[in-house]
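Budget justification, computational time. The allocation requested in the original proposal was used primarily to generate C-alpha cells for proteins on the priority list. As evidence of use, we reproduce two of the resulting records. The first is shown immediately below.
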Amino acid sequence: MSPLVVRKLLIDMSAPFPARWNGGDAFRSAFFSALSMSFPVGEQYFIDSVRAGLKELPEEQRQRLAHEVQGFVGQEATHRRIHALFNGHLQTMGFVNTLEPRAARRMQHNAYRDVRIHVAATAATEHITAMFADWMFRHPEALEGCEPRLQTLWMWHAAEEAEHCSTAYDIYLALGGNYAWRVRMLRYITTLFALDITRQTIRNLWHDGSLFHWSTWKSAAQLLFTNDGMIRGNCAMWRAYLAPDFHPRQQDTSMSAQWLRDNADRYALVGQSA
C-alpha cells in the first residue's frame, strides 16, 4: 500500500457556521454534527489502541508496521483536532455533546481488556467509517448546499478514512487475532455506533427545534433508507467484513485517492514543503 502521509487542511475553521450548516437541511446537519461529535474521543481511542497493539508485537513485525502506524496516528490526530474545532462551533450554538462523555466512560470501563479486543474494535470502526467514506464519494448530494470549506473538511476526512482503513486490521492480524472475535466486534461496534449516533442526532434535532417536523424525517429516509442510502446502500460492504478471507485492501478506494489528487491545493503535507 502507499505510505500514509499527514495532511494539514488549508481552510479557516475560525469562522462560525449556522446550525443547519448542511445545505439548510435540518436532518443532514444534525446527523453529520452527531458524527463529528463522536470523532475526537473515538479517534483518540483508535490512536491509543493501535499504538498499544504495535508495542505488543515482536520486533520484526513492529518494525514492518511502525511507519504505517505513524501515518495512521498522524492522520487520526489531525482529524481529532479539526473536528474539535468544528464541535466548538456547535457548542457555541448550544448543542450539547452527550455522546462523548458516554463513550469515554465506556472506554474507561473496558480499559482492562486484552489489547486485541481494543484493536479489533478499532478495526471494526474503521471498516464502518470506510463504508461511509465510499458512500460519500458516490453521493456528493449528501453535502449539497454546504459551504466549500465544510465540504472540503468532510471529503478530506472521508478520503483519509478510506486510505488508512487497513492499519488496525493489519495490527489485529499481527497480534494473532481470530476470526470469531473480529466478527463479534463488528456486530458490537455497529450496534453501539448506531445507538450513539441516533441518540445524539435526536438531541441535536430537539435543540434545533426540528425534531417533530415532517420534512426532517423525510430527509432522514432519503439519506439513510433509500435503496442506495447510507444504511441500505452499505449492507453489502458491511457483510463483506464477515468473510473469513476478508481484508480491507480488497475494497476499491480509487474515488478517495482521486479526490486527494484533484484537491491537492486544499491541503499541505505535514513535514514537507507545500
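The second record produced under the same allocation is shown here.
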Amino acid sequence: MKTLAFPRPMRRFLLGIVALLAGLALGVASSPARALEAPDKQIERLSAEVLARIKADPEIRAGNLERISDAVDELVMPSVDFQRMTALSVGRGWREASAEQREELVEQFRMLLLRTYSGALSEVRDQSIRMKPLRADPADKDVIVRSEVIGHGTEPIQLDYRMRRADENWKIYDINVLGVWLVETYRSQFGPLINQGGIQGLIDSLRERNSRGEQGGAAGGQ
C-alpha cells in the first residue's frame, strides 16, 4: 500500500496518537453513565487521559501491543465508532460484505493500525493538546472538532476529529492529521484491492500483511 509522507516534526508522535484515538478495538463497549459532554470537551478530556497514560507507562511507549490494546479498551473504545470508521474506509464494498466478512474486516483493520503505529508512541514526551473553538450549532449531530498538538520547540500540528452523536454519546469516526483524513486515505488504498479481488481479496490481503507483521500506514512512515 502506498504511504503518504508527512512533515517530520512530531510525525511519529502524531501517528501514535492516531493509533490510540482511532479506537484500535472491536465493537462498542459500555462505559459508566455520564452526562453528555460537548464534543470538544470530550476530546479535550480524552486527549489528556491518553497522553497521561502513555507518559506513565514505559511498556506502551516501547510499543507493547498488549498494553496498548488494554489502554485503548479502557480509555478510547467508548468514544469511537470503529465499525463506522472501517465501513467508511472500505467504501461501497462494505455493503457487499457478509456479517462474517465485516467482522473480519474490522479485526484486520484494527490489527493493521496497531502494527503500523504502535512504535510511534515512544516519541511522546512533553506534548499537550490545545483545543480550537467549536464551530457548530448545539443542534448539530455531526461535527468536526479541531485541535492542535503542542510540543516544546515545534510548530503546532493540526489534529481534528469527525464526530457523530449517537443516542447520548459523541463518537469519533475519522481523524485528520495535517490535512489528511484517515478514512479517505485508507479508502483510496483499499479500493484497488477490492476491484481486483472483491471484499474477500481485501480481507486476504490484510490478513497476509498482518500475519507477516507488515506495516501499512495511512499517515506516513515511521
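A brief technical remark on that second record: Strands lie at 128-131, 142-150, 157-166, 169-177, 180-181.
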